[in-house]
Amino acid sequence: MNPQVESAAPAPVPASVSGSAPEVSPQQAGPEASAPRSPLLSVRDLGISYGASKRNPKLVVEGVTFDIFPGETLGLVGESGSGKSTTGRAVLRLLDVAAGSIAFDGVDITSFGRSTPLSYRRDVQAVFQDPSMSLNPRQPVHMALTAALKRHGIGDAASRRAKVHEAFDLVGLQAAHLNRYPAELSGGQQQRVAIARALVLDPKLVICDEAVSALDLSTQSQIINLLSDLQEELGMSYLFIAHDLGIVRHISDRIAVMRTGRLVELATAHDLFEHPQHAYTRRLLGASPAEHPEGRVERRAQRTAYAKLHAEGLIEP
Ligand SMILES: Nc1ncnc2c1ncn2[C@@H]1O[C@H](COP(=O)(O)OP(=O)(O)OP(=O)(O)O)[C@@H](O)[C@H]1O
């Protein structure tokens, strides 16, 4: 966990947070106590609808407002179906937004419509739940990274090879793993490849959507520690989406709580766990992780399908 958390003091609350998301606590502490910094990502009044039509404008995400600061991890929690992944996919521009804006480095990227700038696609990377679904089973794993570099027009063959080696090294994989096929690696090693694929593009923000949920407990903690170490070394931000509150608490500076498509509370990790303000947060903290309603499996399948398409560069919003 970033050591900034415990000492964090409230940062200025943007007018649109309190104005457009009245359910959110005004205790929207930023990661820095003094000198306010500009957010890396500013999501304002986000509204998302699947299969939007004028006759059926039902929003599954509504009025969602939050910032992510450079080097910060924002955890996003909530029960199954509350809209966490939908929010993450909107930030990744895999989904159109029905309302609101998403600004990155001060630029409203929703204003570009479907032609999201390539620089944004490079700066914002994702690590999804099931690495076996997002790696091509017919290719040695190094090709996932090489393909990402090629897609972004980065380097020549020699410098790409060097970058791929460097990324593998960063995530604790060895050169011997480069030519393995996904099925020849463990789940944890596959997830390291997925992390390396994100990192090889030097992202500023990584969306981790249930990135450790499919792993066994000891591998989960290895990957969480790896993500923390990488953040300390490289300084990127994370949007960390998960249903396991223990993990989210461990890795997050601040945590946002979603309920039925809306943010109900946003606070430092410490404050959220020690002094939860919203009744729903208190209920969530008291709930067993096993209490996920049905429907989770189906949505997981949808999401891994998304992950695969996205990883192969086949999805353009
Ligand atoms: N592809 C889709 N088409 C239609 N509705 C969808 C689709 N994906 C998600 N939804 C709906 O959007 C709402 C939010 O789903 P989302 O997957 O974002 O929730 P979540 O909080 O990430 O849940 P989980 O933790 O189970 O993944 C749910 O009501 C869900 O049924």
UniProtKB/TrEMBL annotation:
Listed InterPro entries: AAA+_ATPase (IPR003593), ABC_transp_ATP-bind (IPR050319), ABC_transporter-like_ATP-bd (IPR003439), ABC_transporter-like_CS (IPR017871), Oligopep_ABC_C (IPR013563), P-loop_NTPase (IPR027417)
Positions of the ABC transporter domain: 43-285
Keywords recorded for this protein, A-Z: ATP-binding, Nucleotide-binding, Transport
Classification via SUPFAM superfamilies: P-loop containing nucleoside triphosphate hydrolases
Residue ranges of the region described as Disordered: 1-38
Biased composition annotated in UniProt, kind: Low complexity: 1-26
The family this protein is said to belong to: Belongs to the ABC transporter superfamily.
Listed name of the protein: ABC transporter domain-containing protein
Upper lineage: Bacteria, Bacillati, Actinomycetota, Actinomycetes, Micrococcales
